[in-house]
Each structure stands twice: as C-alpha cells, then as structure tokens.
Specification:
By secondary structure, this protein is mainly beta. The chain is 9% helix and 25% strand. The chain has a 13-stranded parallel sheet, with no helix packed on it. The longest helix has 20 residues, at 2-21. The chain starts with a helix and ends in a 6-residue tail after the last strand.
C-alpha cells in the first residue's frame, strides 16, 4: 500500500512537471495555447489540455514524430515544430489534425527525398501554410519525393531548393498554392523545366538565399503566368539575367518586382557591373509595376535614358534605386519630368549615390495581408 502511494505521488509529480514545463495561459478556464518553446523536450507532451488550439514545441530536442503523437490534440490549428532535430516521421504522426492550418517544421533534418512517408499529410485537409524550409543543408542531388499532393488546400509553402531540383507531378495537385518561398538554395542552374511541375496559379515567388551564382535559362518563369510578386532579394543571379527572364510578364500587371542586391561581379561568366540599356529593359518596361526595387545592384551607367523607358509610369507607387552609382548628368531633367507622369507615386528612394555608406538606412518592402508596405530598416546588405 505504502509502495503504491509513493508510486502514485511520483507519477503525479511527473505529470504536473511535464504539464508545467509548458506555459498554458488560461482565459476564462479555457486553455487554447500551450507554449512549450525551448524546454529541452525530447518527446511530445501527452498530458496537455486536449482542447488546445496552438502548440509551440519549437527549439526543443525532438528527434522523431512517432505514430499518433498528436491524437489527443484534435483541435490544434497551429503547430510549431521548428528548430528541433527531427529526422523521422511516422506515417500516422499527424493523424487527427484535420483542423490544422499552420505547420512549421523548418530547421530540422527532414530530407525532401526520404523521410516523408506517403500518407503522412493525408489528415491535414485544412492546412493552409507549410514551412519545411532549412532542412536540407547539403547540396546533394535529390528528387522531391515529399507527398505534398495530399495537401490540397495549401496556400503557402516554404521549402528548400536542392541541387538539380526535380519536383514531380505531386506538386501539380496544389491547386490552391499561391505563395512559394525557397529558403536554403543549393541550385547552380535553373532550367526551363525546373518549375514545370508547379501549379500555374502561383502569385508570389520568393527565392532569396542563393549565395552561389545561379545560371538561369530564360524560360524558367513561364510556368508562372499569374505571378504578382517576384522576390529575388540578395540572391546571386545578376541583374542582367533577372531582366531577361521577365518576358512572360510583358504587358501584364505586377505588385512587386524585388531585385535588390542581386548583382555580384562574376569574372567566369563575364558578368561585371551593370550598364543598363534599352535592350535589357525591353520586357520590364512593358509591365505595369506598383513596387520596383533595383537598389544595390552596381548599376554604374544608364544608356539612352533606359530607366525612363517604362510604358506605364502611372502604375508606380514605390521605386527604390538607392545604392547604385550611375550618373544623372545628361538626363536628370528627363527623369524629373518622367517622375511627374507617375500619378500614383508615393515614394522614390534615390539615396546613397554614389558613395557607399557604411550602414545605410534602407526603405524595405514588406507584404502585409496581400498589400505592399514600406518600412524604414537598417539594411544589413548582402554581405551582412
Ligand atoms: C509507425 O508506427 C507504427 C506503430 O508504432 C509502426 O508499426 C510502424 O512501423 C511505424 N512506421 C514507420 C514508417 O516508422
Ligand atoms: C537525402 O536522401 C537521399 C536519398 O536517400 C540521400 O542520397 C541523401 O544523402 C540525403 N540527404 C540528406 C541531406 O540527408
Ligand atoms: C549540416 O548539418 C550537419 C549536421 O547534420 C552539420 O554538422 C553541418 O555543419 C551542417 N552544414 C551546414 C553547411 O550547415
Ligand atoms: C546535376 O547538375 C550538374 C550541373 O549543375 C550536372 O553536372 C550533374 O550531372 C547533375 N546531376 C544529376 C544527377 O542530374
Ligand atoms: C528555354 O526557353 C526559352 C523560351 O521559351 C527558349 O527560347 C530557349 O531556347 C529555351 N532554352 C533551352 C535550353 O531549351
Ligand atoms: C523578399 O525576401 C526577403 C528576404 O527573404 C524578405 O525579407 C522580404 O520580406 C521579401 N519581400 C516581400 C515583399 O515579401
């Protein structure tokens, strides 16, 4: 008897301990959020209130997700598992999470080729946002075997871009995918076919962490005819290439073309500083653009007033040209008059010419609820 009581007390103690490791604020005796961030956990707690809607298990030491680990938490809408060391997912790990809207698995060791068993996402019928970026930290060649096709309602996906990426037909099923974000970029060449398996309804494309130079075939964006936001900020692709792949968007409208800091000299490819010509501007100049960011691109000269060749100046709201070094001496007046024709313009950032300042304050473009807004930020720059 005595022994039994002691055991029970120990287990009670353990229960309350695990429970108390997570911070569960109660609002009118309703428990909706369990914050278990950075608690050194090696397994998913099994005794949290079953009606929680949000479970934050980020920054722990989870290494695997076994069968049915979230079965108890069928009301979950947000599940954060980022910054763990997860390598293994059981096929039924996410079973019962049919209300889940947001799942983050970024910064783990999940291989897009292997550890996602077929069926693992099948319960996640309502998932809108999946973040599985920053898992592939090596640049080996891998076909994507991850069964994303099971996530038929997904709107936003963040994923790594591996060397010789071949996506596969399962991506074609993502009929609702609008926002595609690549974080960790290992590609060296983007072929015309690289994104041909992607659904064509994508509106936002972000590829911003390619540190090694990427060769880009000029048809690479043809699979995305409905793009509204193209964000290459800080990727090493050179402005000359970036302007060449815009031909699918000629005579269309776009919310933002963000080409900040994408130009580094590449002797091997015979690419150096940028001399803008009318030929280079021939696609972009036909697009109706709300926000254009060409800042920090080593533009040293503009020939034939190429920068005022835009056919739809009345579309512009924000233009960033700062931290380049071209001279305006021969066409400054033309630019001035051109700006006058921009009826909706809210801001042109033309600062930091031609000197490179040490810590320039840049205006940054951010998207909030599908709208573009501008913030003042201390720009870390591509070398930062
Ligand atoms: C998933 O878990 C079940 C039950 O524990 C087990 O039988 C199965 O082998 C596991 N599958 C994988 C792929 O780990
Ligand atoms: C991913 O899986 C593939 C195929 O099994 C393997 O060749 C590769 O080494 C793995 N990569 C990582 C980063 O684990
Ligand atoms: C990749 O992950 C391994 C651990 O699996 C680590 O030792 C290595 O430093 C990482 N490499 C990079 C480039 O982050
Ligand atoms: C991957 O691409 C490189 C060039 O970037 C090429 O040499 C190599 O053969 C490709 N590997 C595979 C498996 O296709
Ligand atoms: C890529 O597509 C473009 C546009 O359709 C085409 O002009 C070019 O020849 C293609 N390149 C290759 C290597 O197939
Ligand atoms: C463009 O990408 C950068 C770097 O990832 C990011 O900080 C920025 O928010 C993105 N811009 C928009 C408008 O989403």
């Amino acid at each position: 008897m005595h022994f039994f009581i002691v055991l029970c007390m120990i287990s009670l103690y353990l229960c309350s301990d695990v429970f108390s490791e997570c911070n569960i604020p109660s609002v009118l005796l309703e428990y909706t959020v369990a914050n278990c961030k950075d608690k050194g956990l090696t397994s998913v707690p099994t005794n949290l209130p079953p009606d929680i809607k949000e479970l934050d298990l980020s920054y722990n030491r989870l290494s695997r997700l076994d069968a049915n680990v979230f079965l108890r938490y069928e009301y979950l809408e947000h599940l954060m598992l980022d910054n763990n060391v997860i390598r293994v997912l059981n096929k039924t790990a996410f079973i019962s999470l049919s209300l889940l809207k947001y799942l983050s698995l970024s910064n783990n060791y999940l291989n897009v080729s292997d550890p996602y068993p077929s069926g693992v996402f099948r319960s996640l019928k309502n998932l809108l946002i999946l973040d599985i970026s920053r898992n592939m930290n090596t640049s080996e060649y891998n076909p994507y075997r991850i069964p994303v096709g099971e996530l038929c309602n997904m709107r936003e996906m963040s994923i790594d871009l591996v060397l010789n990426a071949t996506f596969g037909q399962q991506f074609k099923n993502l009929h609702n995918l609008q926002n595609l974000r690549f974080d960790y970029c290992h590609v060296k060449i983007l072929y015309n076919e690289t994104f041909s398996d992607m659904p064509e309804n994508i509106k936002e494309f972000h590829m911003t962490t390619c540190k090694a130079f990427v060769v880009i075939e000029i048809g690479v964006l043809i699979p995305f005819p409905h793009l509204k936001v193209l964000n290459f900020t800080n990727s090493n692709i050179h402005l000359t290439q970036a302007l060449k792949i815009l031909h699918p968007f000629q005579h269309k409208s776009m919310d933002a073309i963000l080409f900040r800091g994408i130009t580094r000299s590449n002797i091997e490819r015979d690419l150096d500083v940028v001399v803008l010509t009318l030929e280079m501007m021939k696609y972009i100049s036909t697009i109706c653009i709300k926000t254009l960011d060409l800042a920090d691109n080593q533009i040293v000269s503009v020939r034939n007033k190429a920068l005022i060749s835009f056919k739809h100046p009345n579309c512009f709201e924000y233009i960033m040209l700062s931290s380049n070094s071209f001279s305006l001496t021969t066409w400054g007046v033309n630019l001035f008059w051109f700006v006058f024709t921009m009826q909706k313009i809210k801001m042109i950032d033309f600062s930091y010419f031609p000197l490179r300042f040490k810590t320039p304050v840049f205006l940054d473009v951010v998207r909030v609820n599908n709208h573009t807004i501008i913030q003042r930020l201390q720009y870390q720059g591509r070398w930062g």
